[in-house]
Amino acid sequence: MDTHLYLAFIGISFFTVMSPGPAVLLAISNGLAYDLKAIILSSFANIIALFGLSVIAMFGVGVILKTSVVFFTILKIVGSCYLIYLGIKQFRAKHQNFILEDGRVHHHYNNWKVFQKGFLVAATNPKPILFFTALFPLFLNQNGNVTLQFFVMTGTFMLMSFGALCFYGYLSTAAKALFVNKNKLKIFFKLTGLVFMTMGVGLLFVKEQ
């Protein structure tokens, strides 16, 4: 892979992973509701899903997704419903398990559920497949080892995505002191719930490229 192409790929990937979206919002929510461990666990689950989506794109399913209206619509509806479901849960959560200790907010949580939510937020979103399918061919050197280049780009994107999610999550943990008030917490989770639901509805209007 040419160095200048790789650097261009890094630049585009940086702005992509830093752009606000469902995964970023989930990282921020985890940072406020839980702790650093939950942020890392959810972010790791997210990049595992991203790897799966990149493999799907590599083997041509991304092309099917771009050309099959039915397949695209089904995946889009599933992803939309899941985001709306997360939003409703977030909006209706009562947050009785929060404990205030030394100015920090702690929450008892299930590791598997945190991992599962991080995985599904990425796995049920058709946009990453379209991203991988449309972007990867632009940076491939057809005269080189295509498989190796694929893994280099995928690995780079995964690391950058993981770093971005942990960054957003860590920033939110630093802001916990602003949310120790129970009413502020309720407002925050209701707002994030509404944002998740809005993203879910918005996903229904995403068109295949």
Q: Can you lay out the helices and strands and say which pair or pack?
A:
Layout: H1 3-18, H2 22-33, H3 36-58, H4 61-67, H5 69-92, E1 99-101, E2 104-106, H6 111-123, H7 127-139, H8 146-174, H9 182-203
Antiparallel strand pairs: 1-2
The gist of it:
By secondary structure, the chain is an all-alpha fold. It has one domain. 76% of the residues lie in helices and 3% in strands.
Describe what this molecule looks like in 3D.
This protein has nine helices and two strands. The protein has 209 residues and is mainly α. It has one domain. β1 and β2 form a beta hairpin. The chain starts with a helix and ends in a 6-residue tail after the last helix. About 4% of the residues have low confidence.
Comma- or semicolon-separated keywords:
single chain; 9 helices; 2 strands; mainly alpha
Number of helices: 9
Structural class: mainly alpha
Would you list the SSEs in sequence order as H and E? HHHHHEEHHHH
- How many beta-strand runs? 2
| % residues in beta strands | under 5%
> Level of helix content?
over 70%
